[in-house]
C-alpha cells in the first residue's frame, strides 16, 4: 500500500480549493448575478444554465480521452492542471463582468463567457479529478485523499460564499457590477497560486498498461461519428425539462428508447468488432458500480445544487438580509469541512455504501424540515442548515473515491483502465446536475412570477423559495438513498480487487 505523505494530500487539496473559487462562486452567486446585476430574465438565465452545462458532456468525454493518452515527464494529468489555469482565471473574471451592451448583446456575451468558463474548468478539473486515481493504488488512501480534497474544496468555497457579498460591497461601494469584477480579480490571482502549488507538490504513481492498438486521432474520429448518441439524449432532456409539454415529452421517450436499443446492440457486440472508443463505452456500460455512481453524481448534485442556488435569494428576500447569506455560507462550509474530514473514519466503521445511504437520509430529513421554519427564525435556519450540511459534505467525498474504486473494477474485469474517461463522466454528470439544479431554481422562481428587476414580484415568489430550500432538494436525497441500495462493491471486494491489480501491474509491461 502506498501511503501518501501529509504535504502531498494538502497540496492536492489546494487544487480543489482553487477550483471551488469558480465552482462554488458560479453555483451560489452566478444565478443571482445574472438576474439582479447583469439584467437577464430568470427564464433566459435558466436556459443559459441548461444549454451551457449540458454541452459539457462532449468536452468532458473528449478531455478524459485526451488526458488518458497524454504522456509527459510530469505524468498524464498534472500538466493539464498547469496549462489550463491562466484560462480558468481569465474566464472567471469575464463571466462576472457587466459590459455596457444591449440586452441581446449581453445575452450573447453571457453565453460566450460562460461557455469559456466551463470549457476551461473541464480542461482543468477532469485531469485534476483523475489525478486522485493514479496518486495511490490504495482505496483506503484514496478515501483519505478525498477527505483532504473536499476539505480544501469547502475551504475555497468558504472564501467565495462567505465573503463575496462583503467584498462586492467593499470594492463596488454601491456599484455591484464593479464590485463583482474587482472581487474576481482577487480570486483569479489566488486561483493561480493554489493551482501551481498542486502541480508542484503531487506525484503520479499508478501507471496502467498502455493500449497501443489505437491512437488519439483515430479515436476522436471514432467519437465524432458517435456524437449524436451523446448529443441527442442531452437535447431531449433539456427540451423536456424546460418546456414540459406533450411534444418535448414524446421526443424524450423516442430518443431514450432509441438509445436503449443502440446500447443493447453495443453490449452484445464482440470486443474484436469494436473500436477503441466504443470498447471504452461498452466497458463503462457494463460496469454496474460506475453506472450507479453516475446516477448518484447527478442526484446528489441536484440535492446540493438546488440548496446552494437558492440561498442567495432566500436570505435576500425571505430573511431580509443579503449579508447574512455570507455568514450562513460560512457555517455551512465549516460543517462541510468537518464532514469531509470525518468521511474516512466513518467509512471504515460503516462502509462506503452504508455511510452514503445514511448521509442521504439524515441530510434529506433535516433539509425537508426547513419547510416549517418560521420566516426570520435565524437560529433554526443556521442549526438545521449546518447539521444537514455535515452529512451532505460526506456525499461528494465518497463519490470521487468510489469512482476510483469503479476504475479499479473496470481494469480488474476488462483488463483496460480509462481513469480519465471514468472521472470525466463523473464530473460531467455533476456539471449536468449542477446545470439542472441552477435551471430548476430559476424555473420555479419564474413559475412564481419572480423578476429580479421588479420588486413587486418578490412577495409572490417567497413560497417558491421556501420549497426550494426544503422539500424539492430533500426529494432528490431520498431518491439517491434508494438508488445506492443497489451498489455492489463492499470494502472486502475493493481490497481483493486492489491486491490482484497490484500483482498484475508488477508483471505487466507499461510501455
Automatic annotation (TrEMBL):
Q: Which SUPFAM superfamilies match?
A: MFS general substrate transporter
Asked if Transmembrane helix is a keyword of the record, the answer is yes
Sorted alphabetically, the keyword list is: Membrane, Transmembrane, Transmembrane helix
| Record flagged with keyword Transmembrane | yes
Task: Give me the segments passing through the membrane.
Answer: 38-56, 77-96, 108-126, 147-170, 182-202, 223-243, 249-267, 288-308, 328-347, 354-373, 379-400, 421-448, 468-487
Q: Which domain of life is it from?
A: Bacteria
Chain ranges of the Major facilitator superfamily (MFS) profile domain: 1-492
Q: Which family does it belong to?
A: Belongs to the sodium:galactoside symporter (TC 2.A.2) family.
Protein known as: MFS transporter
Q: Which organism is it from?
A: Colwellia echini
Amino acid at each position: 500500500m502506498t501511503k501518501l505523505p501529509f504535504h502531498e494530500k494538502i497540496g492536492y487539496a489546494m487544487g480543489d480549493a482553487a477550483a471551488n473559487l469558480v465552482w462554488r462562486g458560479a453555483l451560489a452567486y452566478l444565478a443571482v448575478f445574472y438576474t439582479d446585476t447583469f439584467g437577464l430574465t430568470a427564464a433566459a438565465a435558466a436556459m443559459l444554465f441548461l444549454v451551457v452545462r449540458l454541452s459539457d458532456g462532449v468536452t468532458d468525454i473528449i478531455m478524459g480521452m485526451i488526458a488518458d493518452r497524454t504522456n509527459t515527464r510530469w505524468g498524464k494529468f498534472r500538466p493539464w492542471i498547469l496549462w489550463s489555469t491562466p484560462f480558468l482565471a481569465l474566464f472567471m473574471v469575464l463571466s462576472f463582468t457587466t459590459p455596457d451592451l444591449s440586452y441581446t448583446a449581453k445575452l450573447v456575451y453571457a453565453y460566450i463567457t460562460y461557455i469559456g468558463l466551463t470549457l476551461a474548468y473541464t480542461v482543468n478539473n477532469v485531469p485534476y479529478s483523475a489525478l486522485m486515481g493514479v496518486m495511490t493504488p490504495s482505496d483506503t488512501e484514496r478515501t483519505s485523499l478525498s477527505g483532504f480534497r473536499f476539505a480544501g474544496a469547502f475551504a475555497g468555497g468558504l472564501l467565495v460564499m462567505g465573503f463575496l457579498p462583503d467584498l462586492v460591497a467593499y470594492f463596488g461601494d454601491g456599484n455591484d457590477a464593479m464590485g463583482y469584477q474587482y472581487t474576481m480579480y482577487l480570486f483569479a490571482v489566488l486561483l493561480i497560486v493554489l493551482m501551481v502549488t498542486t502541480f508542484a507538490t503531487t506525484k503520479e504513481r499508478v501507471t496502467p498498461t498502455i493500449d497501443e492498438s489505437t491512437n488519439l486521432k483515430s479515436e476522436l474520429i471514432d467519437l465524432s461519428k458517435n456524437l449524436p448518441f451523446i448529443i441527442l439524449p442531452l437535447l431531449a432532456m433539456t427540451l423536456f425539462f424546460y418546456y414540459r409539454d406533450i411534444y418535448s415529452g414524446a421526443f424524450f421517450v423516442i430518443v431514450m428508447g432509441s438509445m436503449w436499443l443502440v446500447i443493447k446492440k453495443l453490449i452484445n457486440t464482440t470486443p474484436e468488432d469494436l473500436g477503441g472508443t466504443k470498447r471504452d463505452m461498452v466497458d463503462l456500460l457494463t460496469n454496474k458500480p460506475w453506472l450507479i455512481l453516475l446516477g448518484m453524481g447527478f442526484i446528489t448534485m441536484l440535492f446540493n445544487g438546488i440548496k446552494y442556488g437558492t440561498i442567495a435569494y432566500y436570505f435576500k428576500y425571505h430573511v431580509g438580509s443579503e449579508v447574512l447569506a455570507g455568514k450562513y455560507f460560512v457555517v455551512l462550509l465549516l460543517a462541510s469541512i468537518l464532514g469531509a474530514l470525518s468521511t474516512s473514519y466513518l467509512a471504515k466503521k460503516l462502509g462506503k455504501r452504508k455511510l452514503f445511504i445514511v448521509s442521504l437520509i439524515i441530510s434529506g430529513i433535516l433539509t425537508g424540515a426547513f419547510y416549517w421554519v418560521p420566516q426570520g427564525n435565524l437560529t433554526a435556519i443556521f442549526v438545521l442548515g449546518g447539521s444537514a450540511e455535515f452529512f451532505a459534505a460526506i456525499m461528494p467525498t465518497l463519490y470521487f473515491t468510489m469512482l476510483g474504486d469503479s476504475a479499479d473494477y473496470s481494469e480488474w474485469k476488462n483488463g483496460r483502465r480509462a481513469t480519465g474517461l471514468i472521472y470525466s463522466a463523473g464530473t460531467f454528470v455533476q456539471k449536468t446536475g449542477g446545470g439542472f439544479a441552477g435551471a430548476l431554481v430559476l424555473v420555479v422562481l419564474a413559475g412564481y412570477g419572480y423578476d429580479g428587476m421588479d420588486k413587486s414580484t418578490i412577495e409572490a415568489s417567497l413560497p417558491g423559495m421556501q420549497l426550494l430550500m426544503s422539500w424539492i432538494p430533500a426529494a432528490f436525497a431520498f431518491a439517491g438513498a434508494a438508488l445506492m441500495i443497489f451498489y455492489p462493491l463492499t470494502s472486502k471486494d475493493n481490497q481483493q480487487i486492489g491486491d490482484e491489480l497490484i500483482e498484475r501491474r508488477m508483471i505487466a509491461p507499461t510501455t
